[in-house]
Amino acid sequence: MNDLINGLLTYGLNKNIITDLNQAKQNLITLFEISDFEYQHIDNDIFRVLDSLLDIAYNKKLFNPNTSMERDQFEALIFDKIMPSPNETKATFKHLFNSDENQAIKYLYNLSIDVNYIKSKRTSQNLKWVYQSSYGKLELTINLSKPEKDPKDIAKALEIKNQVNGDSPQCVLCKENEHRYENARMNLRIVPMTLFNQKWHFQYSPYAYFNEHAIILSDEHRDMKLSCDTFEYLLDFVDLVPNYFIGSNADLSIVGGSILNHDHFQAGNYKFPVEDSKTLKTYENIKNISIEHLNWPLSTIKLISMDRLILSDFACHLLKSWKIYSNPKLEIIAKTDKIHQTITPILRKENGIYALYLILRNNRTNKAYPDGIFHPHPEVHHIKKENIGLIEAMGLAILPGRLKTELIQGYAYIKDNIYHKDLDKHKDWLDALKRSNQVHSIEDLYQEVGKKFEEVLNHSGVFKLDNQGKQAMDQFILNTINTYKKM
């Protein structure tokens, strides 16, 4: 036991996350209910150390049940005993940020990795590949990093729900999650940021979908809302952290993300396929703004400018114009009993130049498409049925973990006619692939999934990239420019 604790302490010292060795040691002695011992430098594999410590903790009845979720929660508690406190982390971040924002961001990111809040070992197991579509490359990943909830975890969560107090967070994004045992947040550290004179909080995502995947969440628990203020929040952020992109999910169901009850953005150090898409048409510069219609399946307008005031003003005008635009021939209707139109914005700043991508969205449904007209249609639901949020809209597919096994089984069916009941949802697709005789390896099957993701994106675009759709979007952009000139 002492060797394991010493291995953990040595790891903490090596990673510079321990500021007071004696205090860290005493914290662990108290946590594990053991006698005092002398520290010795012991290098060991940290994941083996943690697994062994968690086994001991479970046998000591320090947590229960012995599920992945409970082990994650107790592991986070272990790290909390040796890492800087939330207040210490905020103070260090602020000190670093005042002199070098990149060093501050690097500090928080490395800390989140080192204390295993960012599950880097798990995310490294995700399957990733590239598909060359008619729009350029698309990226796909099968997410294996986030463990499925055990029924025992669900039962315990219901017990906890009945004991909720006034300090409990209202959702998984609330700032009150920091340093909370439930949901494995004892090792979560967040830092405040001021965006457009409002308080926000910056943290990293534990199951990173892309490099340095960060979340910026509002101080107040409030619904997602896309408004003209949104552009000011985004612009302030890239002025503060210019080496990160930032984007927002749409604020409507179906076309929004999975969490619509807490206003938040996503950011990171990553370049997405939409940013490499070609330009279909460039429009006249208006007040130092370059305007482009991109060759991208989700209808995307790119604005480029060095003038953030004009950029924000025009983006606001475009958002308002889109919210009232209708084209019944294309099934684009702005409002029925509800508002149906909004945007998915993405912003990047390089060398003082802002590039703002505005993806037009509509969440209307009809009898033919009850899940959404501009949403993945039933024929692709076996691959992707969930909302097409910010990440997918930018060209990175986050596919469910079930697909890893199902694709292996699917290839066995194509190659050797071995059928498994889990393939029922895929059968029509697999039969068509068998007839085509084009799938000769599991990698070929992955490429066929890429084709399906391209279909997903095609379904989600409001202006299709046929002649009628391109002409209609062209007219929408021209009208938006002309009405802005008259303001």
Structure notes:
By secondary structure, the protein is of the alpha+beta class. It has a domain at 2-116. The chain has 15 helices and 13 strands. The strands form 2 sheets. The chain has a 10-stranded antiparallel sheet. Strands 1-2-13 form a 3-stranded mixed sheet. Helix 1 (2-14) crosses helix 3 (46-59) and helix 12 (402-416) packs across helix 13 (427-436). The protein starts with a helix and ends with a helix.
What fraction of residues sit in β-strands? 15-25%
Number of strands: 13
Strand order of the largest sheet: 3-4-5-7-6-11-12-10-9-8
Overall pLDDT: 94
Q: If you compute it from the alpha carbons, what radius of gyration comes out, rounded to the nearest whole angstrom?
A: 25 Å
Number of H- or I-type helical stretches: 15
Largest sheet descriptor:
10 strands, antiparallel
Shape: globular
Q: What's the order of the H and E elements?
A: HHHHHHHEEHEEEHEEEEEHEEHEHHHH
Structural class: alpha+beta
Roughly how many Å apart are the termini?
A: 73 Å
User: Which regions are unreliable across 5 or more consecutive residues at pLDDT < 50?
Assistant: none
Helix content: 25-40%
Question: Summed up, what is this model?
Answer:
The chain has a domain at 2-116.
List the helices and strands and how they pair.
Layout: H1 2-14, H2 21-32, H3 46-59, H4 68-80, H5 86-99, H6 101-114, H7 120-123, E1 127-133, E2 136-142, H8 151-161, E3 191-195, E4 198-204, E5 214-218, H9 228-240, E6 245-247, E7 264-268, E8 279-286, E9 289-294, E10 300-305, H10 308-323, E11 341-350, E12 353-362, H11 390-393, E13 396-399, H12 402-416, H13 427-436, H14 442-460, H15 467-485
Parallel strand pairs: 2-13
Antiparallel strand pairs: 1-2, 3-4, 4-5, 5-7, 6-7, 6-11, 8-9, 9-10, 10-12, 11-12
Helix pairs in contact: 1-3, 5-6, 9-10, 10-15, 12-13
